[in-house]
Design a protein that fits this description.
The structure is a single chain. The protein is α/β, with parallel strands linked by helices and 402 residues long. The protein has 15 helices and seven strands. Helix 12 packs across helix 14. The structure holds S-adenosylmethionine. S-adenosylmethionine binds next to strand 2 and strand 4. Pfam families: Methyltransf_32.
């Protein structure tokens, strides 16, 4: 691919586009019985175009929003596609099958793809941030033939991780440590690099903060940007702060959550179940609006996987109980179920606008992190370390202090 755009330039262009179209991508169609957008050109044309799509085209655009999009008639689809293009990382490393013991298949593939992002010399000291059972640490210890300190706050994960490392004769030490606690900085003192695969929101921001202070190299694949204390996102870098202010871009937690909402790794079965759950929620939404006599969305708690009732009626009765609503006799359950299914067709089509802005949002957040380190004198590179089908959180940020 061509030389990647400088981070600051890319951030500036993305800030402008995200701010210009904020009114269109930020309202969630799921929570609106009617059009989610203000009456503004070209909202009505976009809605009409999306509602006319057949199921196959809708599904294709959910998967590949930038390819042959009918929205290009109104929205800067090609420019967004160009701005989210990030170079591919080095190919995955090869490792013996036996090394994969105790690691889930998909996680193992992610780790093989992430490993080349971790450059480390002989005898250098690695720290893994939010390590779980230290699966990545074990792979890296084998690859680099060195010692690794893996930080994790759950004692049970530390214990089983330590047992696995010892059984395999590896120099990996699982340390029970809350990475948000001040005491964490002692682990970075003599570290040559900190690695973090899928460290959530504030947990990876804390890592960036300490890496800046202590001038430590990092290899990070961030995720779950919405897991953060602040209700409104405060850009980390001076450049993102300035750009956001200049263009009037403000991101709340829902916007941050949108950046990571993707189902590319779900199986067909899981997808069908999720579709049904969404249709039932929309069916209940129609019902609750009638029962309350209030034409407003009512958030219903999520249900743990496998806890969804078998029948639509039972789901509605559960949701009504949760929200303190009384369900009268004589409800035509089938009619509400069908209504939910029809609403979902509409919502899925309107959501296609948000699919277009999801990756730009994520890239914007990663650029903010990259620039924050660059402003502290680090050399930073971004790459896509694996295909989206393996994990949509496939951006890696590698930073080296000057
Ligand atoms: C999303 S998992 C990632 C685990 C592993 N890196 C992977 O890719 O499978 C996040 C891990 O961070 C740990 N964690 C969450 N909060 C933490 C904290 N404050 N301090 C240390 N670890 C934490 C969790 O227990 C969990 O094991």
């Amino acid at each position: 691919m061509n030389t990647p755009l400088p981070h600051a330039e890319r951030l500036e262009a993305l800030t402008r586009l995200l701010a210009d179209w904020h009114w269109l991508w930020s309202p969630a169609p799921f929570t609106h019985a009617g059009a989610p957008w203000p009456e503004r050109t070209p909202a009505a044309d976009i809605a009409a175009c999306l509602q006319a799509l057949d199921d196959a085209r809708c599904q294709r655009l959910q998967q590949r929003p930038f390819d042959a999009s009918p929205l290009a008639a109104w929205l800067p689809v090609d420019e967004l596609a160009r701005l989210v293009r990030v170079p591919d990382g080095a190919p995955p490393i090869q490792a013996p099958e036996a090394w994969a013991a105790h690691v889930g298949g998909r996680k193992w593939q992610q780790m093989l793809a992430f490993a080349p992002q971790v450059a480390v010399g002989q005898g250098q000291r690695l720290v893994e941030w939010c390590a779980g059972k230290g699966h990545l640490s074990r792979l890296l210890a084998r690859r680099h033939d060195g010692s690794i300190c893996a930080l994790e706050w759950q004692p049970a994960l530390c214990e089983s991780g330590q047992a696995l490392a010892e059984r395999q004769g590896l120099e990996v030490t699982l340390v029970e440590q809350d990475v948000m606690a001040p005491s964490v900085s002692r682990h970075l003192g003599d570290a040559d690099r900190v690695v973090a695969l899928h460290a959530c929101g504030d947990l990876h921001v804390r890592l960036l903060e300490l890496a800046r202070e202590q001038k430590v190299a990092i290899s990070l694949a961030p995720c779950c940007y919405q897991r953060t204390r602040d209700k409104i996102y405060r850009p980390l870098s001076r450049q993102a702060q300035q750009q956001a202010e200049r263009h009037g871009l403000s991101l709340d937690r829902e916007a941050l959550a949108l950046s990571v909402q993707e189902t590319v790794t779900a199986s067909q079965g899981e997808r069908r179940k999720r579709e049904q759950a969404n249709a039932w929620r929309l069916g209940f939404d129609a019902l609750q609006r009638r029962l309350r006599g209030v034409d407003d969305y009512l958030a219903v708690p999520s249900l743990a996987y496998g806890r969804m009732p078998e029948r639509f009626e039972d789901f509605c009765r559960w949701a009504a109980r949760e929200k303190g609503l009384t369900v009268p006799d004589g409800i035509d359950w089938d009619a509400y179920r069908r209504r939910g299914e029809a609403c979902l067709q509409r919502v899925n089509r309107l959501e296609l606008v948000r699919h277009l802005f999801r990756r730009p949002l994520e890239v914007w957040l990663v650029l903010d992190r990259a620039l924050w380190l660059e402003e502290a004198g680090f050399e930073v590179s971004l790459s896509q370390f694996c295909p989206r089908a393996l994990t949509p959180r496939n951006l890696a940020l590698v930073a080296q202090p000057a």
